[in-house]
C-alpha cells in the first residue's frame, strides 16, 4: 500500500456553529458570493441568518441563487460571471451537494479563460485541471455527498447530455461548517437518498479497491453500520438531532479520503449513474440505489470474498468460507432490502425508465471514463456489454 494524503479543509462541527460563519469567512475574503439552491435556505430563514453573520463580520454579500439538483454548466457560467462582475474574493456554498459542487466549479471558472466544461472529465485526453480557485466556505444543509470536505465536483452539461466530475486540489473548501441543525428540515426522501449516497461512496472503495486494506475495510464498515443505525432514525423523525449529526459526520467521512485512502479503486457505480442522470435528471442517489445492488451481484461473481466479508461484518450473516457466493449474494439482498426499507427505488421501472437507452448509457459511460482498453475502471473492469447487463438487471 502506498499513498499521499493531504486534506486541507478545516472542519467545524456542531449544533449552532452557523453563528460563526462570518468569523470563519472573514480571513478568506471581504466580498462573498453566497451560492444557494432551490429556495429551502430562504424558506427556513437560514439565508437571512447566514448573510447577517457575514454582514456582521464586515463582509459584503452577493448572491447566486437557483442552483438546480444535478447542477448545470449554465449555472456555473452564471455564477462565475456574477463573481467576476462584483470582484468577489470568497465563495460561501449554502446548500446540498449540488450547491457545493456548483460553487467549486464557479470558484475555479473565475480563473479559467475557456469553457468551464474543459475542467470536467468527459473523455478528452487532457482535461484542464484547475490550479487556482476562489476560497470556498462549505455550509452543507443536507447529509449526503461529503463535498464539503473533498476536492471533487459533479456538473451536468445540458447541451451535450453529459454529467461528469472534476477534481483538483484547489477545490478543497478552506472551511467546512457542519451544523446538523441546518439539516433538520430535509424531507424524508432526501434524507434517505443522502444515506444511500454516503453508503455507496464507501462501497465503491470497499469493493473496487486493492487487496490487503484491513484498516480501510473496518473504517468503511464503521461508516456503513453508523448509516444503517442512524439513517432510519433520521428518516423516521427528522427532528432527531443526534441522528442527523451522526449521518452528517458519516457523509463527510465517506468521501473525504479517510476511508478510501490507498484503496486506488474505481467508482463504476457512480460513473454509470452520472450518465443515467444526464439523460433523465433523476436524483443522483435514487440512481445509485437502483444500480449499486445490480452491480454488486455482477461483481460478487468475480470477487466473492469481499462480498462475503461485507455480508458477515455488516449484516452478521453466516458463510461457509471466503468463496461462499450464496452468502455473498445474501448480503447484497440484505443491503437492497435496507434501501427499499428507507424508501429508495431499486428498479428503473419505479422511475419510469425503460431499456430504450441502455446501450447509450453504456457507450457514453465508457467514452467519458475508461482504462484505455475500452473498459470502465473497477473490479472487475467493465465492458459496455457488462454495463448493459447490469443495467438490464436493474430495469
Ligand atoms: N462532490 C462530491 O463529492 C459528490 C459526491 C456525491 C454526489 N455528488 C453530486 O451532488 C449532487 C447531489 O447532492 P445532494 O444529494 O446533496 O442533493 P442536492 O444538493 O441536489 O439537494 C437535493 C434537494 O434537497 C434540497 N435541500 C437541500 N438541503 C435542504 C434542507 N436543509 N431542507 C430542505 N431541502 C433541502 C435541495 O434544494 C434539493 O431540492 C449530485 O449532482 C451528485 O452527482 C457530489
Ligand atoms: C472519481 C471520483 C468521483 C466521485 C463522484 C462522486 O459523485
TrEMBL record:
CDD domains: BDH. One of its GO terms (cellular component) is cytosol. It comes from the Bacteria. Residues 191-394 form the Fe-containing alcohol dehydrogenase-like C-terminal domain. Transmembrane segments: none annotated. One of its GO terms (molecular function) is alcohol dehydrogenase (NADP+) activity. This is NADH-dependent alcohol dehydrogenase. It comes from Pararhodospirillum oryzae.
Amino acid at each position: 500500500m502506498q499513498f499521499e494524503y493531504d486534506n486541507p479543509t478545516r472542519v467545524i462541527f456542531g449544533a449552532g456553529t452557523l453563528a460563526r460563519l462570518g468569523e470563519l469567512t472573514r480571513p478568506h475574503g471581504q466580498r462573498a458570493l453566497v451560492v444557494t439552491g432551490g429556495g429551502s435556505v430562504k424558506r427556513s430563514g437560514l439565508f437571512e441568518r447566514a448573510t447577517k453573520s457575514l454582514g456582521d463580520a464586515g463582509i459584503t454579500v452577493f448572491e447566486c441563487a437557483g442552483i438546480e439538483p444535478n447542477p448545470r454548466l449554465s449555472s456555473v457560467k452564471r455564477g462565475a460571471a456574477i463573481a467576476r462582475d462584483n470582484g468577489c474574493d470568497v465563495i460561501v456554498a449554502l446548500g446540498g451537494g449540488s450547491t457545493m459542487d456548483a460553487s467549486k466549479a464557479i470558484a475555479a471558472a473565475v480563473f479559467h479563460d475557456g469553457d468551464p466544461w474543459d475542467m470536467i472529465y468527459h473523455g478528452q485526453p487532457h482535461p484542464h485541471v484547475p490550479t487556482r480557485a476562489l476560497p470556498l466556505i462549505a455550509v452543507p444543509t443536507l447529509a449526503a455527498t461529503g463535498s464539503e470536505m473533498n476536492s471533487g465536483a459533479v456538473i451536468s452539461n445540458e447541451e451535450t447530455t453529459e454529467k461528469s466530475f472534476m477534481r483538483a486540489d484547489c477545490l478543497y473548501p478552506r472551511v467546512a461548517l457542519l451544523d446538523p441543525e441546518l439539516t433538520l428540515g430535509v424531507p424524508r426522501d432526501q434524507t434517505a437518498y443522502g444515506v444511500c449516497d454516503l453508503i455507496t461512496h464507501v462501497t465503491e472503495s470497499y469493493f473496487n479497491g486493492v487487496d490487503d486494506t484491513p484498516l480501510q475495510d473496518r473504517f468503511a464498515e464503521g461508516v456503513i453500520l453508523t448509516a444503517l443505525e442512524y439513517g432510519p432514525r433520521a428518516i423516521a423523525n427528522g427532528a432527531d438531532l443526534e441522528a442527523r449529526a451522526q449521518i452528517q459526520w458519516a457523509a463527510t467521512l465517506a468521501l473525504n479520503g479517510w476511508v478510501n485512502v490507498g484503496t486506488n479503486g474505481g467508482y463504476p457505480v457512480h460513473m454509470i449513474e452520472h450518465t443515467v442522470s444526464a439523460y433523465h435528471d433523476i436524483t443522483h442517489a435514487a440512481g445509485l440505489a437502483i444500480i449499486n445492488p445490480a452491480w454488486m451481484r455482477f461483481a460478487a461473481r468475480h470477487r466473492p470474498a469481499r462480498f462475503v466479508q461485507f455480508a458477515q461484518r455488516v449484516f452478521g450473516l453466516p458463510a461457509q468460507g471466503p468463496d461462499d457466493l450464496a452468502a455473498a449474494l445474501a448480503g447484497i439482498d440484505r443491503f437492497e432490502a435496507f434501501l427499499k426499507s428507507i424508501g429508495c427505488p431499486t428498479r428503473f421501472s419505479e422511475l419510469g425508465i425503460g431499456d430504450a437507452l441502455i446501450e447509450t448509457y453504456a457507450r457514453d459511460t465508457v467514452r467519458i471514463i475508461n482504462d484505455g482498453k475500452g473498459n470502465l475502471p473497477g473490479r472487475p473492469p467493465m465492458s459496455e456489454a457488462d454495463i448493459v447487463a447490469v443495467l438490464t438487471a436493474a430495469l
